[in-house]
Amino acid sequence: MSYNNPIIPGFNPDPSIVRVDKDFFLVTSTFEYFPGVPIYHSQDLIQWTLIGHALTRPSQLQIHTPEPGGGVWATTIRYHKGVYYIIAASFQRYRPQQDDRVWPQGFYVKTTDIWNEKTWSDPIYFDQVGFDQDLFWDDDGTVYLSSTYRKIQPTIGAKLKDFAIHICTVDLATGNSTSAPKLIRESSSGVAEGSHIFKRGRYWYLFTAEGGTESGHSEWVNRSEVSPLGPWELGPNNPLWRNGVQDEVQNTGHADLVEDTKGQWWAVVLGVRPSRKGDTWEDSVLGRETFLVPLEWKDDWPVINGGQKISLNSHGPGLYEFNTPVSWRDEFSDTKLQVGWYRKNTPFVHDFSLTERPNYLRLYGGPYNLSVPASPTMFLRKQTHLVCRWETRLSFQPTVGETEAGTVVWLNYFTYSSIGIRKDRKGRFIRFRPSEGDVVERRLDTNTAVTLTVDCGSEYRFGYLEGIESDIHWIGSVSNSAATAAPPVGANFTGMMLGLYAFGERQRCLAPADFSRNITSLTPMTETSKIDHPISIPDITSDDATDNWSGLSDPTERRRRQNRINQRAYRKRKRLSSTKDIHPKSLNGVPSARTARSTFTVQSQDRSSQDNPKLNFCRTPEFLQNILERFAKSAFESYARGDPTADHLMTLTKVNVFRAFAQNLRLIGWSEYWMDHDAISPFNTALPQSPSAPGSNSLIPTNLQPTRIQKSVHHHPWLDFFPLPKMRDNLIEAGDDWDDEQLCHDIMGFWGESTMDAGLLVWGEPWDVQNWEVTEPFLKKWQWVVRGCPELMNATNSWRARRGEKLIFRYI
Length: 812
Fold this sequence. Notes:
The protein is an alpha+beta fold. Helix content is about 15%, strand content about 30%. Helix 3 runs antiparallel to helix 4.
């Protein structure tokens, strides 16, 4: 089966993995960022969720002024007798240009509850120096610590780093070594690192990353029949694979191994995805990412990925294709930050609030600007896709001229580009500070909130909007090569981050900077992502040039043409569809013996008709996703040129519902490939469970956990995505006595004129009913569907009240 790499995109290097029962846990390096060591979870090795971090307290991690590339390197995660261990080391000084490093003392933290990041212990430090540390428990209970540091006796006459693997036994209670360290692996390349030791059968195996983490990177294996101390036999097929400098994936290595519940072995490795620019490769802005490859054992030697190069489209048993979503948003509606925000270094003080102004992240800028090694008031997220749009809305009224707040494209304190708000005696102005080139300033006309936008793609393009303007003022851009320029000291071991900041020049910023509605969204309209036409849906659009409304500036004419297309589509759908009563014949609470399968089609169910190609809007994610992505691109184009903004905004609210369903699908732990025409919900306990089905519902949000009706009555999986248990039961109990096609249209609200004013709206996390809103036309038409759902009515009135609209007290 084919699947997509990387499995965890963006800055996620040096992966280490462990399986506990059906759960896989994976950690990656964080270097100079806090909190340290992200922990990802998966049950199928394809879809991963960030569940927390291991180092979240200053008592666990103190990094204050490291060079780029300093901080926490190459963590390892292990599980032994009910306890999770994470082993790490933190460089406080890293200056490879001068061969000036302070070798860190490694440490480990542990917990019995990996789901609660607060339970990780304070560090137990080892008395040995080194990085890329690994713990191995032998069958007799002896614990071995392997790590990398420079050989005591350097290679004579060779200009090598002489980084080699050393091993000793260790007392975990104290961290003290109980034997002298022994060198067990050195490399002719001068670098052997990333050691992991495993026991399989009668052999101990030593895996090492060699050649450095750049273009010479590779993975090697040795084995021993005696002990982890050796002697070691070199593998017959080293390196285990090799990606070159002309491949789509490069710099691969640093493997860790895991065996799944079916006995299949896998390796997780790091790699980079450079971008082709002419005849050359441009460094990836995303940094080193996490890849997955299958592993087989032949003659008691590992064979990784069949010995072949690692590619973006890979093959492995039991896996499936999945694209990590681009879209993400934070409305700052909780009292704590979403997981996935990072600080540069360990912060000295608490300099933000999520409660002083609800639904805003309020920053009180500290005395360090973004160009100093210390920790500024800055919150960062990893850029996970090359092409995306980053957007935030900022309210900031500076009182003095030496303060600034804004958004930043961040690699390190030498290489970053920012766009922010400042003040002088004439008033506020926008300041664009690129990583390369001249600073640009533009005067602001109002004192309203400003939307700051960064389009990421073949370059980083920076812009802003004042108040309710519809046109982005593009102020400047930075090439990807300039955005990834190497620092004069340290190294680029990380990837691009996108973030928010506020600072004063050697003084605290007394005026708060309030950020709202932080969004990462789909492809912006850049030179590398143009589309030739607005969205078209097969068989319902027109080839008539008089129907083409793109580019029209007259809203009346634009609406007239849209209505003509919608009316034509509606009439055609009515001709082709069978007539159904949208209301059920009964809602008596007795589960229907019939399957409440939803065949959402725009046209007839007759497969033989050449005029009736089937469009399964709510049940074929590939088709819908394609339509939505094309629509979103068209919307971005119209947004940039002011044409036709209002119509696209109306439709985007409907598109957001589909995105909500897709996210709830992922939260449940299901795959889009379960959504075929005749699918039956895996929640239904009357059926044999699919081998891919989730074995436990404990990780599913409460509102999405299956009800008794969902478990006992056959139904299509799409009905499981609504965040209201009673609404799901109403639909399932109604059996086939309702028009599923019409409901789909009324939810999405953009295929026909008759449904233009109906639908559902989603304003936040889709699993939380408080973020949903139902429109009054939908209530009138589908009253029975939402019967017994007062929480939806309360949420609806809450959103209407925020907009100053009349509350609804009827229908429910």
